[in-house]
Amino acid sequence: MNVSELFNIVNSLVPLEYAFEDDYVGITIGSEQDEVKGVVIGHELDKSLLEYCKDKYVNTVISYHPPSFKKVAEDDDTETMLPEMITKEFMDNSINVITLHTAQDVCDGGNADTLVEIFNLKNTKTFAHTFGNFGAGRIGDIEALSNDEFKKLVEHKLNTNSIRTNEYFDKLKEINKIAILPGSGTQFIDEILEEVDVFVTGDISHRYLLKADDANMGLLQVGHITTEIPGMKKFVENINKALNQELEYLYKDFYE
User: Fold this and answer.
1) I want to staple 227 with a disulfide (CB 3.0 to 4.6 A). Which of 41, 46, 182, 207 is the partner?
2) Domain count of the chain?
3) Helix (H) or strand (E) holding 140
4) What is the three-class DSSP state of 39?
């Protein structure tokens, strides 16, 4: 099997056309003509994943996060994208990378849908749209909980104790409706202000905490990858069935 054939299988499970328009998905490193000599799934490209590939003679990675690049301004005011050090090491070791990112967030049964199942959301609707009816966020009703009960539920369901809230969250007496978006989704906060009691996502900057306070909406921040891991584990199950093999899924549980 070559990389192109593996890409087609991945694309059948996670249609990459559903990703955000400016997202970097697909075959992000390597050549579609290369023969696949071992596959591993990694949440992101890092040193531990690189060492795994070298130790196991694996030449193809299916990653959730895309490779990292940096913009460099040229003398003629144009910009060039240069690979960060870890990206260049994957390139130098001829390791092919197929990246899922937001396509995995929005697809049927992907990261967002998995969160709906985990929190048993009812009467759901989608926000943060990417393509057609597909979107990265979900709004839904939950069984009424106090703020403390809800916080404990998030800790339990997402296997984390790394939680930060805004001031208004602590004033909530009862939570009935939430919005949730895997990864970092505060740029979509305007879509859900005044619609939900609490918005759960990652990487919330201070100004968004204040914005939610002013709108009387609770914000609950978990680790960035915490909301992505459950859906990725489902993807691993699906790709294992499609390939009829057991692939490793590597991520740093320190950040869970």
Assistant:
1) 182
2) 2
3) strand 134-145
4) strand
